[in-house]
Amino acid sequence: MANFTVTIENTNEVFRTSDRNTVLEGMAALGRKGIPVGCSGGGCGVCKIEVLSGTYRKRVMSRAHISVEDEESHRVLACRIWATSDLRLKVIGKIQRSVSRGAPEAGAAQSPMPG
Amino acid sequence: MAMKGVLRPGHIQLRVLDLEESVKFYGDVLGLVETGRDKQGRVYFKAWDERDHNSVILRQADMAGVDFFAFKVDGKAALDKFDADLRAYGLATERIAAGELLETGERVRFELPTGHKIELYAEKTDVGNGMPYLNPEAWTPAAEHGIAPLRMDHALLYGPDIEKAQAILVDVLGFYLVEHVLLEDGKTDLAIWLSCSTKAHDLAFVRHAEPGKLHHIAFQLESWEKVLRAADIMAMNKVTIDIGPTRHGITRGTTIYAFDPSGNRFETYSGGYSSYPDWKPITWTIDEVGRGIFYHDRKLNDAFLSVVT
Ligand code: FES
Ligand SMILES: [Fe+2]
């Protein structure tokens, strides 16, 4: 088992993760925050990140959230990548917290979709 | 009470990112029974105690989510009548030939204003629950394989215009409103729980900007103890649990929300109350929505409103 250091640029959060956990699992297992946690299955898109430096292994991710171009530009889902070196990353995904978002008077068509 | 018209949720087709991984998950962890594969490569499952050939169909795709959700109706005459009524209401319907889904008769498909494809059908082959119709036992070994729910029970869908979907389901298909959550304005619904039976819900909606989204597909268990057993099985198999075991205030079911390997949320629940079409709906205000959704925590978790596929 190899361990790597992950740095989240937005928050300067730093945590250690092993190559046995996805980057998202590694963060969540330590009770750390920074990347939004959703389905952990590559389907919902809330954990979208951009890897700024470092290498990783990846698995299939939903094209609803990661385009081919995203994937080539290292914009990926944190729940579908495993670090193979130290990583620096930027968080892109968002969790929507407001209940009334999406109500007709709040502009139903413009509510932000994660990723 | 005689059940007429729309009888119950019948099948859901889910999109998964990795078919074989998902087949293992639905078969061995959730503990559904695999009943077939078709030429398109779709894999069919049923819960052990269901009698019709399939209730969950998996399709490999490049994004997660739901393709369609279907209800069984009480015969071909009802199917034709609902088709005509939906058209008269102004909706486009599509007939899908018998056999397009394995062991399933002709389907009538239409789209709700929430962006979800709903199907009606009258026939699906009775393959039984593994026990004879004459002098059966109480359960089979399949009842202990994995989480092993009794049935696919209901779905919660996210999309816009839920009041328009409600009107179609109530006015054309005979559903009734069981519970609802009002937004700050005291008029607009954030969420609605609808029944076509004596279950507290067969289909529910939360208002959401993006159409056609799946919040969860629910599977019924026998008891609270089985819900705890499901949580243990999830832990043993590293299934991502969203929340629970806990209870819903709305419908009063005891529950776990968790995610399949593609990030589709599913629920394993038991209990909840029986409901009747003559009952008045229960209303929740937005300031109490936390208790309505998660009765013990009394607040929504971050994932409830935004994590969907
Ligand atoms: S948490 Fe849902 S895609 Fe990563
Ligand atoms: Fe549910």
Helices and strands, with pairings:
The complex is a heterodimer of chains A (115) and B (309).
Chain A: E1 3-8, E2 13-18, H1 23-29, E3 48-53, E4 56-58, H2 68-72, E5 75-77, E6 81-83, E7 87-91
Parallel strand pairs in A: 1-7
Antiparallel strand pairs in A: 1-2, 3-5, 3-7, 4-6
Chain B: E1 6-16, H1 19-29, E2 33-37, E3 43-46, E4 56-60, E5 65-73, H2 76-89, E6 93-96, E7 107-111, E8 117-121, E9 151-159, H3 162-172, E10 176-182, E11 189-195, E12 203-207, E13 213-220, H4 224-236, E14 241-247, E15 253-259, E16 265-271, E17 282-284, H5 289-293, H6 302-306
Parallel strand pairs in B: 1-4, 5-8, 9-12, 10-17, 13-16
Antiparallel strand pairs in B: 1-5, 2-3, 3-4, 6-7, 7-8, 9-13, 10-11, 11-12, 14-15, 15-16
The complex binds FE2/S2 (inorganic) cluster (FES) and fe (ii) ion.
